[in-house]
Amino acid sequence: MTFAGGHLTDEQGVVAGPGDEAGVAMAVARWVASQRPPRVRLEFVPEARPTLDRLRLGVLSFDGADAAVLFGFALGRVIALYNAAYDPGLASLSVGIVSHAWAIREAIASGYTRYDLLRGDEPYKYDLGAHDHWLARLDAERS
Questions:
Q1: pLDDT 10s digits, 82-99
Q2: pLDDT, tens digit, for every residue of 50-78?
Q3: Whose CA, among 78, 94, 140, 142, lies 20 to 30 Å from 108?
Q4: What is the C-alpha to C-alpha distance for residues 25 and 135, in angstroms, rounded to an integer?
Q5: Considering only CA atoms, which of 111, 109, 50, 102 is closest in space to residue 81?
Q6: Backbone dihedral region for residue 94 (phi beyond 0: left; psi -120 to 50: alpha; all else: beta)
Q7: How many Å from the N-terminal Cα to the C-terminal Cα in the chain?
Q8: Which stretches does DSSP call E strand in the chain?
Q9: How far is CA 56 from each of CA 13, 59, 141, rounded to the nearest angstrom?
Q10: 65 has which bridge partners?
Q11: Domain map of the chain by residue range?
C-alpha cells in the first residue's frame, strides 16, 4: 500500500499513486467485496522507504478467501487504524469485529499500549471500547 509514496498497481494498471490513501482504501474495499484477490505490485519511491516500517496491514481470511482487511500506522506505542473493509456477504459472521479483535490482540502482544480507531462515531468503534478524545475545547460566553 502506498502511503508515503509510490504506486499501487493491479492487472488493469495504476490504482493509486503517491498520497492517494482514498484510492488505496477504495481498491482494497473492492477487492475484498469481489472475493477475488488481485495480483498486486507495489512500487515505492526511494524517499518513502524510511517510513514504510510504520505501515500495518492485516487480512482476515475465511474459507480460503480474504474476508476483512485493516490498515493503519504504528506511531510510537500506538496503532492508529486508518481504514478497514470487510466482505458484506460475511457480515453475519462479524468478520469486521473479529479482524479488529485479532489486531488488538496482536498489538498488545507486540507491546503497543493503545489501539486508536481515530475519528468517526461508527457504533462498532464504541462496541470495541473506544472513547472520544477531543483535540480542542472552546468555551464561549455571550456578554
A1: 778 778 887 788 888 888
A2: 565 677 777 777 777 777 888 888 888 98
A3: 94
A4: 25
A5: 102
A6: left
A7: 52
A8: 7-10, 13-16, 41-43, 55-62, 65-75, 78-86, 114-116
A9: 24, 10, 44
A10: 62
A11: 7-127
Q: Which three cell numbers stand for residue 74?
A: 504504528
Of 46, 41, 57, 49, the closest CA to residue 7 belongs to: 41
Amino acid letter, 106: E
Give the separation between CA 119 and CA 105, rounded to whole angstroms: 21
| Burial group, residue 26, by CB count within 10 angstroms (0-12, 13-18, 19+) | middle
CA angle 82, 84, 89 (to 5 degrees): 170
* Number of neighbours of residue 131 by Cβ within 10 angstroms: 7
Q: Which amino acid is at 25?
A: A
Q: Which CATH architecture has domain 7-127?
A: 3-Layer(aba) Sandwich (3.40)
| Cα 61 from Cα 99, distance rounded (Å) | 9
φ, ψ of residue 37 in degrees (nearest 5): -60, 130
**Is the separation of the CB atoms in 69 and 39 below 8 Å?**
no
